[in-house]
Amino acid sequence: MNILVCISNVPDTTSKINFQNDNTAFDTNGVQFIINPNDEFGLTRAIWLQQKNAATVTVVTVGDASCEPILRKCLAIGADKAVRINAEPTDGFAVAKELAAHCQATSYDVIFTGRESIDYNGGMVGGMLATLLGIPYVANCIHLDIEGKAAQVQREIDGGKESLRSDLPIILGAQKGLVEESELIIPNMRGIMQARQKPLEVVEGVQATAQTSIEQFEKPAPKGAVKLVDAGDLDTLIELLQNEAKVL
Amino acid sequence: MSIVIYVESQQGTIKKAGFEIASYGRAMADATGQKLVAVVFNQEDASSLNTYGVDLIYSVSTPHPNFEVEGFATTLAAIVQQENATLVALSATANGRYLGPILAVKTSAAFFSNVVALPSSYEPIKVKRSCFTNKAFNLTTSAAPCSVLCLNSNAFGLHEKISTSEIKEFTYQAGNSTLAVTGVDQATNKVTIADADIVVSGGRGLKGPEHWHLIEDLAEVLGAATACSKPVSDMGWRPHSEHVGQTGKPVASNLYIAIGVSGAIQHLAGVSASKVKVVINIDPEAPFFKAADYGVVGDAFEVVPQLIEKLKARL
Ligand SMILES: Cc1cc2nc3c(=O)[nH]c(=O)nc-3n(C[C@H](O)[C@H](O)[C@H](O)COP(=O)(O)OP(=O)(O)OC[C@H]3O[C@@H](n4cnc5c(N)ncnc54)[C@H](O)[C@@H]3O)c2cc1C
Ligand SMILES: Nc1ncnc2c1ncn2[C@@H]1O[C@H](COP(=O)(O)O)[C@@H](O)[C@H]1O
Hints:
Number of helices of chain A: 6
Order of helices and strands of chain A: EEEEEHEHEHEHEEEEHEEEH
CATH class of the largest domain in chain B: Alpha Beta
Bound molecules: flavin-adenine dinucleotide, adenosine monophosphate
Distance between the termini of chain A: 55 Å
CATH topology of chain A: Rossmann fold
Strand content of chain A: 25-35%
Order of helices and strands of chain B: EEEHEEHEHEEEEEEEEHEHEHEHEH
CATH superfamily of the largest domain in chain B: HUPs
Oligomer: heterodimer
Radius of gyration of chain B: 21 Å
Low-confidence stretches of chain B: none
Number of domains of chain A: 1
Number of domains of chain B: 2
Strand content of chain B: 25-35%
Helix content of chain B: 25-40%
CATH superfamily of chain A: HUPs
């Protein structure tokens, strides 16, 4: 079984978000990049399949050489090989096109994306890739069982969950629940050493054109000061919520 | 030409998000002089859409009662093509976010997630979207002939406009996928975080799952959904589906009440789209006070029971 895990390189969750060039570009100065948290759940789930079903796990990212440290980290976590598609991830559609070209050249049984990247929150690459490849996609995936050539999966829906089945190949949008936070694999020294020997292949992109482009960034307006209400005077809080904020 | 909207319903009832997307679609239709076409699935009576200015309703019946992404997307794509639509809008619900990118590829449209306002320009299309989990916004443009916009919950609101819409049946197109729904496990009596006007959220300050009746009782008097911080769900005090924040669910309610939540950057990012935020925390230095509109410095175990009693007496 061949498994692909799509990895997005995103700013650490504690990063201060700033822009440059007249607010037309994200300012990466001082920003640390991490594996997109949703992708880590998919990667760990893939490693379990590697251990149980003797699957081969490839990780892929669309981006420039600055993405290589996180690919190395994925190898240290346990992926067998890494591919960097050398192209600028201009928008979700272009990324999906680049990934589709790779998946057409090498076939995979299970492809994990994350539910969304925590930078642009597109939540789109998985569904687009699946549609380009003509295979099913399950968003917000919280459970996976593979039996032969079929997958039983669950996805989170508003107020509950849904069970689905599908033939392979399939694309799954991973999130917490597919794997618990405490089960995420943290690379150890041996993993880090082994990662150095594992292949990290760089392939040229197909120069997919983006459908959208960002013209301008803006930060939210600064917030006014909090109105404190005394703990012994909750009637005032209720009145403020009713009459001033008008939310009750 | 038309604007096509996907109106979401659940168990035969149109969701609030469905009326919001109709309001949004109406405003775009007025701005561009186009017809507003709504698509409903398994909805016997869609006449309530007349309150939100819809011109034409395509009513689709599906063989199974469930949402099926491939069939819904294939059917919507056929309608988009038949109507020669240049703008398609749907709600950022779990199903809407699932459907949008697939529909966009099927219709060769540009996809815009996290839309928070009406387009500021239509030719070319320019739309304001949130990014970095509400830590920023951006103005995004596209030259594609068709655009699919996914509108964030509560970003536009409900705007009534009476219309008389024509209703037509449209044949469901199942699409070809091996994906099949085998079961749905959904609470029908509980307000969900996605739909709620009010969300009551608890953090580690509540000390343990045995104290969650405080959150649940407060939510009940307010008709609110319950939520929690990430560590609370990681420790198994509450289900993952209640985890809100940058790596959990986004919250965009009218009122968000955070109890015993410190207000870490990842938590705040995910809830900041809520209009009014109230924080109850024993520590006056808790970062959440800087992001809140109203605050009570106090012990949750004293404040919350009193608040519940007072609300019961008043509401
Ligand atoms: C990659 C990453 C992603 C993350 N994503 C998220 C996310 O999506 N959502 C999220 O929530 N967190 C997220 N976190 C975790 C986040 O950094 C914080 O650790 C977390 O939000 C803290 O949860 P808390 O406020 O419940 O607990 P704490 O920070 O421990 O705060 C508890 C609060 O309760 C107060 N308190 C104590 N006793 C009482 C009392 N009797 N009455 C009233 N108040 C009391 C304390 O003063 C304190 O402010 C993420 C972290 C990382 C590293
Ligand atoms: N540049 C990229 N390279 C590889 N995979 C990506 C990239 N961007 C996004 N993805 C994948 O698509 C998922 C959803 O991303 P997005 O649609 O950007 O929110 C991510 O969790 C990744 O798995």
